[in-house]
Amino acid sequence: MRVVVLGGGESGFGAAYLAKTKGMEVFLSDNGPIREKYRELLEKHEIPFEEQGHSEELVLNADWVVKSPGIPKKADIVYKIQQKGIRLSSEIEFAAEFTQAKIIAITGSNGKTTTTSLIYHLLKQDGLHVGLGGNIGMSFARQVADYDYQYYVLEVSSFQLDDIQNFRPFISLLLNLSKDHLDQYNYNYEEYALAKFRITENQENDNFFIYNRDDEMSINLLEKIEVDAKTLPFSLKTKVAEGAYMSGEDIYINYNGKFSMPVEELSIVGNHNIANSLAASLAGKILNISNESIRTSLMTFQGVEHRLEEVATLNGVKYINDSKATNVNAAYYALESMRSPTVWIVGGVDKGNDYSEIEALVRKKVKAIVCLGLDNSKIIDFFASQKEFIYDTSSMEEAVAIAKGIASEGDTVLLSPCCASFDLFENYQDRGNRFKEFVLNN
């Protein structure tokens, strides 16, 4: 079998490496430059590759094409692959074909990384042999090639789910839905939401689907979609007979026995993190993890970098890095959790954002807006009539300097951009790291 991999990043290298270890003929093609780290790995493992363009004669003679999630589905080469009827898969689909491990897959518009990391922490604390992958760290395919884990906890995006055929997690979680990546889904919210729901399309009645009882779009679509897996809800608002919920100052898990603990003992704060903790605990109960292990894990888990990460308190001003907030809903959670007047750094590549969703919160919580991006006109136009202090910047150094100048003792400076990072930064990690660098550089 000839496998062609499109994209030479972590996901692409992992897929090519796995194909090579399985004795397949493999070729990797990247339309842009391949980072030195991955070029060296490809050469080390004698995997033929090309960069700075796709040679159609080398791509379109494949039996199976594995596409990295960063390649737009509307790309010309993708169209030609589909026209030829060649199987086109994501790396998670490809890797899943070569492991018998139980897969716990997490998707949603927000909270994926935190919940995925929390479930991994929970399983590892209980002594299970588990790998962490998907959009986090080492690619799923690379781990399947090199390790023999019994469980994989995978953060999964809609772009990865667009290109599955047989991918079937033992447990799937859909945390929430909000308008994100609409530019890739014809600006149609339901089309994007249905892409997320593909996480459960191959599940059978011995599998589990955990969903958010409070999420309006999820509930609407569940009425239309036939889910064969056992469905288990979690809720911050409603008591559920079977599932997980918050009531008063405690969380409760009712499945495979009962578990409860006070909210104040959770290591991560905010309503969104209570919801993430409910979903993760429910997955733990399905896997027969002890109540004591769940409790310990929820008390000891350290939040993920770039997600409401407290950087420092300088001259009485708290600085928070929420660079991972690349959509309006994520910024909503961040603003909702603010307890002091906030200088808000926002901006980047707009993905079809509707800022009216956070309008009331901005009026209530934000004392000044610092826009950070190459084109901030949409944000400035929307909030111009509501906030006296709005600043237009095009570098992190300038944005942080202005924020430091505005903030008073007792305030918070919050980087929660609402937007993708690719106008000024390599990725959201680069953006968050630059923020921390300039905050700490007095």
Automatic annotation (TrEMBL):
> What GO terms describe the biological role, i.e. biological process, of this protein?
cell division; cell wall organization; peptidoglycan biosynthetic process; regulation of cell shape
Task performed by this protein: Cell wall formation. Catalyzes the addition of glutamate to the nucleotide precursor UDP-N-acetylmuramoyl-L-alanine (UMA).
Name its cellular compartments.
Cytoplasm
Q: What is its EC number?
A: 6.3.2.9
Q: Which UniProt keywords apply?
A: ATP-binding, Cell cycle, Cell division, Cell shape, Cell wall biogenesis/degradation, Cytoplasm, Ligase, Nucleotide-binding, Peptidoglycan synthesis
Its pathway, per UniProt, is: Cell wall biogenesis; peptidoglycan biosynthesis
NCBIfam families according to UniProt: murD (TIGR01087)
Q: What protein name applies here?
A: UDP-N-acetylmuramoylalanine--D-glutamate ligase
- State any single GO MF term: ATP binding
The keyword Lipid metabolism is annotated on this UniProt entry: no
Gene3D superfamilies (alphabetical): Mur ligase, C-terminal domain, Mur-like, catalytic domain, NAD(P)-binding Rossmann-like Domain
Q: What class of enzyme is it?
A: ligase
Q: One GO CC term of this entry? A: cytoplasm
Indicate the family of this protein. Answer: Belongs to the MurCDEF family.
Domain named Mur ligase central is located at: 106-283
Residues annotated as binding ATP: 108-114
Major location (coarse): cytoplasm
Q: Which reaction does it catalyse?
A: UDP-N-acetyl-alpha-D-muramoyl-L-alanine + D-glutamate + ATP = UDP-N-acetyl-alpha-D-muramoyl-L-alanyl-D-glutamate + ADP + phosphate + H(+)
Mur ligase C-terminal domain location, by residue?
A: 306-418
Pfam annotation, one family: Mur_ligase_M
